[in-house]
Amino acid sequence: MPRTKIFVVAGIYIHIPYCKQKCHYCNFYSIASKKYRFSFVDALIKEIEGRSVYLKGEPINTIYFGGGTPSLLYTSEINRIIDSIRQKFIVNPGTEITLEANPDDLNEDKIKLLRNQTSINRLSIGIQSFFDDDLKYLNRVHNGNQAINSIEMAQKAGFNNLTIDLIYGIPTLTTEKWKRNLDYFFSFEISHLSSYSLTVEPKTALNTLINKGKMQAVNEQQSIRHFQILLQETGKHNYIHYEISNFAKKGYYSKHNSIYWLGGHYIGLGPSAHSFNGFSRQWNVSNMKQYVEADKIDKIVDEKEILSLGQRYNEYVMTSIRTSWGCDAEHIQNVFGEKYCLHFLNSIKQFVAESNVRNENSQYFLTDKGKLFADAIAADLFY
To answer: Which helix (H) or strand (E) covers residue 135, if one does?
Structure first.
């Protein structure tokens, strides 16, 4: 388990909201429409040009194309966006540049173009499952064969820094199938895995369908069992469980997502994207029409807030307790003061006593047992 935090500077997240169709479980802002498709990139460039002062000259170490479905972009559009960022920000050599992609968007020609004609050096493929019935339940566009082919083509093209997503707790996903999903992952020797429990969010199609009795409900005990298997199997294969939902071979942590977990600063570009510079947070409008038609940068910002010391402490606890670096009482003392440190130490005692948390000197880490209750534990540590 890592004891020294990786060096974190600033990052840029770019939200590409377009999708071929909406997945039943998704609660991110996305649209299954091509309206404003080309004027969107123009608006994005305009936002890049107007947001260059937000991080006050901090160098950029990661660029992340998320969505939605960024793999729907043309390579020329990707290059235009990256070139604009390089013109307006200090982008470090060796910057990690990630593109999220769906298997159905990746053919041999597309992957070669991404590899050879763009600066993308990390590919994140939304596999979710290798079984068609699971994918149908989730309303994914691709099938199991496309999932396998996309990985093979990406590796053949030279994408060694590759990550995939797998979802567990799907009602159609038996324990045996979940183990086989993980076996597929290990067989490809992929360097990184993001794996999430299926959650039914309000206002999603999945929530509506379950409430109407048209879809099978998620079973919490099944999700817990899948998570326990996930921990066991990744441990056997020497993957580092460096964040609740993320596993990596040594040296292959997601540098971009680590910015969020370790309190780094970032700009979010595109509709609904969030930004954080250490003391304030803001997020853009979740509306493509408003975003594209805005004539001033301020008009795309939906809300801003200055974080109080208590809010910053709560954010630190919420994100750090989820990681293998844990919560550091000395850090809390130095950054937030004695009042917050005493509160933290008094609040965390019960979780240590219950073997949900273990401590080494001033650092506190979730145990495997405690990882099942990460959000509840964090909430109890809040000030």
So the answer is: helix 132-138
